[in-house]
Amino acid sequence: MPVDADIAAMLLATQAAGIPPLSEGTAEQARANYFRAPKPAGDALARVEDHVIPGPAGDIAIRIYADSDATDLPVMAFFHGGGWVLSSIEGHDSLARRLASRTGALVVSVEYRLAPEHPFPAPHDDCWAVTTWLAEHAASLGGDPSRVSVAGDSAGANLAAGIALRARDEGLPLTYQLLIYPCTDDRQTRPSMVDNASGYFLSAADMAWFWDGFVPAEHRDNPYAVPARVDDLTGLAPAHIQTAEYDPLRDEGEEWAARLTAAGTPATLTRFDGAVHGFIARWEQMAGALAAHDEFAEVVKPNL
Q1: pTM for the model
Q2: Catalytic site residue 92?
């Protein structure tokens, strides 16, 4: 179907703004441009608190979100998107709030180290440290340590998928995975990467630039960094995957869902027609995101 009308208007406005492609600038320039974009107003919640926990290279900042004062909430470790280079807890505050309000979970947003200053395995190791800490200490935050799930959008979904693989390998039980337009493969051969290579907010050149900053050549065969490299997808936590029709990442996300299903891992998939990459966190500009948020309550919440 055609690109949604509100999304088409946003794409035209983005083009008119004259922001240079990511691949033509530095990480610092990309970060400055990222934070120029307006963010939706965040949902009001019962609790929003900042904490720090021990990490492999020092303390890791986390922000917890809960729409209840209950002390046994399901826990969702949330890893923000932004190509492993952009955003932060603050940049994804509104989406984390929406996840908490719609799922009823204790959402724990992670300030992992960013590439290219801190390439793989640093972001993965930070997310792993938080996930394992929650499995032991979530009760101190009001969560149930026996019900820990992982979630992320785009690069955050890549991190969530890598954490789910490592949890399987190291015997850490996870309840669920929510993967929002995940990037699982650095190879740019799938039809959606070719057909949607430019003009739809995220470009194929952007993704190549992100991958080059995130994963050094010696780690490109590591499935914790590039999940598509894994051979065995058995024994993973159930997953829900959301993709967008005009996203270069669409096909790799949908292929990931198919591979999980073929391996016997319960996985559901929704493609949002007319949508582009990033729509999930821009609901004041892209009304179609609200249907994806409904799935947080209807599909994800019952499984946490």
Answers
A1: 0.96
A2: no
Q: Round to whole Å and give the CA distance between 289 and 291.
A: 5
Where residue 185 falls (left for φ over 0; alpha for ψ -120 to 50; beta otherwise) is beta
Which residues are CB-neighbours of 35 under 8 A, at least 6 positions away?
Answer: 91
> Could you give the residue ranges of the DSSP H alpha helices within 24-64?
27-34
Nearest in space to 221 (alpha carbons), one of 265, 187, 258:
187
Instruction: Please tell me which residue in 80, 124, 240, 277 is annotated as part of the active site.
Output: 277
Which CATH number fits the domain that encloses residue 296? 3.40.50.1820
85 vs 90: CA distance, rounded Å? 14
Give every residue of the chain whose pLDDT is below 70, as ranges.
14, 16-17
Summarize pLDDT for 116-130 with one digit per residue, the tens.
999 999 999 999 999
- Residue 12 tokens read as 């035209």
Residue tagged active-site, from 125, 126, 144, 247 = 247
First to last CA, the chain: 33
Q: Which one of 154, 186, 192, 203 is the catalytic residue?
A: 154
Q: Helices 155-170 & 122-137, crossing angle to 10 degrees?
A: 60
The H or E element that residue 149 is part of is: strand 143-153
CB 177 within 8 A of CB 151: yes
Active site residue 118: no
Catalytic, 154? Answer: yes
Enclosing H/E stretch for 210: helix 204-214
Burial label, 57 (beta-carbon count in 10 A; 0-12, 13-18, 19+): exposed
Domain count, the chain: 1
Pick the closest to residue 100 from 119, 77, 132, 118 (CA basis). Answer: 77
Domain containing residue 165? 5-303
Q: What are residue 258's phi and psi, to 5 degrees?
A: -65, -40
The whole-number pLDDT of residue 284 equals 85
